[in-house]
Amino acid sequence: MTRAPQRPQPALRPGAIGFLDALVIGLAATSPAYSLAAVIGPVVALVGVHAPGVVLASFVPMLLIAGAFAALNRADPDCGTTFSWVTRAFGPTTGWIGGWAIAMTGVLVIGSLAEVGVRFGLLALGLDAWESSTPLVVALSVLLVLVMAALCVLGTELSSRVQNALVLAQTVALAVFAVVAVVRGVRGDAPSGGLTPSWAWLDPFGAGGAALPGGLLLGVFAYWGWESAVNLTEETRDPRRAPGRAGVLATVVLLVTYLGVAVAVVSFSGTAYLAGNADEEEAVFALLSGQVLGGWDWVVLVAVATSAIASTQTTIIPASRTGLSMARRAALPARFGSVSERFRTPDVSTWWVAGVAVAWYVGVHLVSENALLDSITALSLLIALYYALTGLACAWSFRRRLTRGARDLLLLGAGPLAGAAVLLWLLVLSVRDLADPATSYSGQAWFGLGPPLVIGVGIMATGVVLMLLWRRRDARFWAERPAVADVSGAGGPRPAS
User: Fold this and answer.
1) Where are the alpha helices (DSSP H) in 125-155?
2) Whole-prediction pTM value?
3) What is the DSSP annotation of 406-431?
4) DSSP β-bridge partners for residue 494
5) Is the predicted pLDDT of residue 369 greater than 80, yes or no?
6) What is the mean pLDDT of residues 237-247?
7) Which of 130, 185, 208, 391 is the least crowded, having the fewest Cβ atoms under 10 Å away?
8) Cα torsion 253, 25, 215, 284: sign
9) Which residues are 484's β-sheet partners?
């Protein structure tokens, strides 16, 4: 009796979105309004009026790594991005760790993004009493994560349309806030009297070099997320070029946005106010909105709410596509490679990402709100790790092209290596700083170390254990050999000689 042939697994929908859609999704994934609200106070506390300079300095390694993503995407347009590229450059084990880091950044932050969206949405609607009810906020945050996951499953086209609306709303709101704030600051029409912007603010070393590393760590978090555009490469028209260009342009747009708002906020409020409220995290914008816009403060609240809601959805994308890519290569169980026949999206991996993120969010929230904030702090370790691995993979994969001209040497070798070096340096500094329990939100020690470091190391150790268990069960993925990128950039990688 002959066995019926198996139906081929449906693929992701090619050409579902265009360049502008990918750009919007890359911008939305960074959650510009939320990221600014979260980092501006702590950065000012570190470097004072030179906060815009730190924003500018943080852009440099992001641009270099974005260039690495674009180059590798041209050679290997795989939705697994870092996982696929690092596997081909350095082998399966390193690639698996890179994929795990991407997936877990989403798990750590999705619930927190949803909570910020819910809290600022309630404040914008004047429902302050609801916002002060933690059980209600947690329940609504969980519901929001599930709704955003459903939108991801229902189709990339629908997701992009939702993101277009959300990004437009927060961009307009941020622009209004920034213009009013800087005008009032220059006029001296501000509670603190205001400050006149100066070109000297753009000097990241103006406050002394000692404070710069801490500011750069915060800046990396603010820019993180633009690579979501590249995770959609298999669903984007012109997949070898458009997603990478969208990622690079997203970092440039973020730079302009962050510089504008940072200058406006410092000009309006001065450094003493921001430094004094640095521990308020994203609440800084909630505090400033009424001072800047008066009765129109809901504009800023809407900006942060839409920013966080948009990022809740787009942060699911890299983790789910990475899970899909890993499953296709037998690096994860085959069920994670499931693609919806109707919607042509990775349904199983999307729901797994959402489910684990909800479990993490609720579980850590039950421990304490400080523990949740510490888990977000641990993000810096994972972000720096997989960005650095991508930069190294780019230089290594294109090593045979580096002597062909100055352009290839700079864009494919020196630039990615420099970006990776900065991020590895920040990773080491982050480990050093997070080891001190005093740097955590709770101020408590776990195993004699700061909770963020314990969480970050624990997540990576868990990944290593899961990898070893899966390798013991199915070793096909680990039979792969490293490869070098096609020097023409027109074809996929080929095995190394």
Assistant:
1) 128-131, 134-154
2) 0.90
3) HHHIIIIIIHHHHHHHHHHHHHHHHH
4) 484
5) no
6) 95
7) 208
8) positive
9) 494
Element (H, E) at 158: helix 156-187
Q: What average pLDDT does this structure show over 421-447?
A: 84
Structure tokens at 147: 């709704």
Element (H, E) at 483: strand 483-484
Q: How confident is the model at residue 277 (pLDDT cuts 50, 70, 90)?
A: low
Residue 341 has pLDDT above 80, yes or no: yes
Q: Residue 485: what pLDDT?
A: 52
pLDDT beyond 60 at 61: yes
DSSP 477: G
Q: What residue type is assigned to position 161 of the chain?
A: R
**Average pLDDT over every residue of 366-371:** 77
At 37, list the tokens: 């609200």
Token pair listed for 313: 């959805």
Q: Which residues pair with 236 in a beta bridge?
A: 17
* pLDDT average, residue stretch 264-290: 71
pLDDT at 389 over 60: yes
Q: What pLDDT does 476 receive?
A: 94
Name 9's Cβ contacts closer than 8 Å, sequence gap at least 6: 337, 338, 339
Q: What counts of helices (H) and strands (E) characterise the chain?
A: 20, 2
DSSP string, 50-88: GHHHHHHHHHHHHHHHHHHHHHHHHH---TTTHHHHHHH
> Long-range contacts of range 476-482, CB-CB < 8 Å, 24 or more positions apart?
476/330, 477/92, 477/96, 477/329, 477/330, 477/331, 478/92, 478/93, 480/87, 480/91, 480/92, 480/329, 481/91, 482/87, 482/88, 482/89, 482/90, 482/91
Q: What is the DSSP letter of 332?
A: S
Contacts of 125 (CB under 8 A, 6+ apart): none
Alpha-carbon distance of 220 to 350, in angstroms, equals 26
CA separation (Å) from 217 to 94, 377, 430, 451? 24, 10, 7, 17
